[in-house]
Amino acid sequence: MPTTAKSVVVLITGNEDGAKHCSMNILYSLQHLGYSIPPQADAGWLGEAGPGPSYMDEGSGGRENDFTNRNTTFMTWNLIHLARMLKDAGGVPAHGNQRSLWDAGCRFDSDNPEHR
Fold first, then answer.
1. Could you give the CA distance from residue 53 to residue 93 in angstroms, rounded to a whole number?
2. 3-state DSSP assignment of residue 92
3. Residue 63: pLDDT band by 50, 70, 90 thresholds?
4. Per-residue confidence at 4, pLDDT binned at 50, 70, 90?
5. Do residues 6 and 87 make contact, with C-beta atoms less than 8 angstroms apart?
6. Which DSSP symbol is given to 60?
C-alpha cells in the first residue's frame, strides 16, 4: 500500500464533546488504510459545552489553552519522529504483508516444507 510510508494524526476543534470518539474512529479507519499512528496521535480543543465560540474565535481562549497547546505539541513531535523513522526505513517492509506469497503457501519466516 502506498500509505504504509505515511504517518497521521488527528486534531479536533470545536465547542462540543466527542473529540476522543471522533479521533478514535478516524485513527482506526486510517490505520486500516495502512497509515502508521504515533503515540499521542490526537489533540483537541473543546471549549464550553453547547453553543459558543470555536477555537480561533476571538475570546474563545483556544490559542491560550495550555492543555491544548501541550497535547498538540506532543502530538506534532511524535508525528514528526515517526515520519522520519518511516522515511529512513523506506516505509513498512512488504515482507510479511504480501497476499500473493501467502496464497502461494509462504508463512513468512515459519518453516513450510511445501513452499518452494
1. 45
2. coil
3. confident
4. confident
5. no
6. S
Q: Is the pLDDT of residue 47 over 80?
A: no
Rounded average pLDDT over 28-50: 88
Nine-digit cell string for 61: 481562549
pLDDT given at position 115: 57
Cβ within 8 Å of residue 7, ≥6 positions away: 35, 36, 37, 38, 79, 82, 83, 86
Report domain extents, the chain: 2-103
C-alpha–C-alpha distance, residues 17 and 85, integer Å: 33
Contacts of 64 (CB under 8 A, 6+ apart): none
The cell numbers describing 106, all together, are 509462504
Contact (Cβ atoms closer than 8 angstroms) between residue 12 and residue 44: yes
Q: How far apart are CA 93 and CA 4, in angstroms?
A: 9
